[in-house]
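Technical note accompanying the year-one report. For the benefit of new consortium partners, we illustrate the data format agreed upon in the data management plan: each record pairs a sequence with a structure-token string. No post-processing was applied to the example shown here.
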Amino acid sequence: MTGWLRRLIGILIILTAVAVTLSRAPDRPVETLVARWAPPPSEFIDVQGQLVHLRDEGPRGDSLPIVLIHGTSASLHTWEGWVKALRPQRRVISFDLPGFGLTGPSANADYRGDTYARFVLQLMDHLQVQRFIVGGNSLGGEVAWRTAHRAPERVERLILVDALGLPFESSRMPVSWQVLQIPLLGRISESLLPRPLVAQDLVGVYGSPEGVSSELVDRYFELALREGNRRALAQRLAQWEPGADAALIDTLKLPTLILWGGRDRLIPPPVAQEFQRRIAGSQLVMFERLGHVPQEEDPAATVAPVLAFIKGR
């Protein structure tokens, strides 16, 4: 090996070591995150041994609350715009799923869609909510339709926002998810998280990059560091079987509103049309300039059809 090649390899090793050092992001105890990300009306409740970050807003006398479920790597904060519009007249319940946000990992490390649906029903039992409207984005959309399938007598209406559940081919899978799915690299990356990578992933799921603010990146970055969340995400991705129970969607028999971002590169718009075809009588509203999290990117535009839909009761 020539001298210049040895020097080049040495430089690359040093640069790699520096990059790894700069990317180190140790887990953070939940107590260090509460002040910024769980101000009132946030609360923490114990649901069968799982401490859950929850917001229960609007009139408690509402006999048909709206339950909103976030997607992978997100948190209840994704619904803040919708909640602001809904809570003057409706009771709205949002929460962090186990494995995400401030709720943190599940003791049994089971992050499958049907397990989450059972968790939603346990949470509703804890809150003494018998019937409700359920909506969800991405993973939360899958959890929502699974909840409706599991307990049709309890779910009156269903709102799917760029939902999982059908087979699809993604043109923009978040890089951080791809890294976690590589066995050896995935374990190493559980202690690494470059903030620019989080920003890059958000640009990939938003329809317009200018919507990705510094505060938004802070939220996703800091909540990903919550103790145990990165390991939980790796387990969730390992357990994920896209489209495995798609046949269940055909059995849904309830009023359903489907909202989708026309620029969704994670779950492309044709999937929305397939949901509409499979769920008899469902309505589809496409937002051409929005991406995978339209409720977060433009709350005012996306909550408008929701307000009309829930009044249709």
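Partners are asked to follow this layout when depositing records. Confidence is low (pLDDT under 50) at residues 6-23.
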